[in-house]
Write a structure and sequence with these properties.
Elements (H helix, E strand, L loop, with lengths): L2 H9 L33 E11 L2 E10 L5 E8 L2 E9 L4 E10 L8 E8 L4 E12 L5 E8 L4 E2 L1
Antiparallel strand pairs: 1-2, 2-5, 3-4, 3-6, 6-7, 7-8, 7-9
Length: 157
């Protein structure tokens, strides 16, 4: 509609321009906020507690890993302090289990401050939960792992 059309609409008391409706190629979602069944569910898995055991110059890091999602998951492997460790543990929704996350040389610096847990859902889709590693410096110069804090979002691999 041009200028004169808009002017004519204003004279008779109508809005000058009709608001344009956004054109969408996606179907409208239901009012309830439900998501279609084809939407991908991203499970949340995280370390909720850490137990470290130092033996001389080596350390074992155990983590209490919890499945905070509504689907079963299989923990596949961890990447902690620069080393990969295979775990292969199944967790049901809400289940928590202690797992060995790392066994090897104790760190003498905090350069490896990121840890990862790789897991998959029942459909075979792989995900990665990245955690920030917290350390405590011991008197002998060894850093003890004290916490792993989830850094959302969960990554789809």
């Amino acid at each position: 509609m041009g200028f004169f059309g808009a002017l004519g609409r204003m004279i008779v008391g109508e809005p000058a321009f009709e608001p344009q409706r956004p054109s969408s190629t996606q179907p409208d979602r239901p009012e309830s906020g439900a998501v279609s069944s084809s939407a991908k569910i991203v499970p949340v898995v995280q370390v909720v507690r850490v137990d470290s055991r130092i033996h001389g110059d080596s350390i074992e890091v155990y983590g209490h890993v919890r499945n905070d999602s509504t689907v079963d998951v299989e923990l596949n492997k961890t990447y902690v302090l620069g080393a990969t460790h295979q775990i292969d543990v199944f967790l049901h929704p809400g289940e928590e289990r202690q797992c060995l996350l790392y066994a090897g040389p104790a760190p003498h610096d905090v350069s490896q401050h990121q840890a990862e847990i790789v897991f998959k859902d029942t459909m075979g889709d792989y995900f990665k939960a990245v955690h920030l590693v917290s350390f405590h410096l011991q008197a002998d110069g060894i850093y003890n792992v004290t916490n792993l804090q989830l850094q959302p979002p969960i990554r789809d691999m």
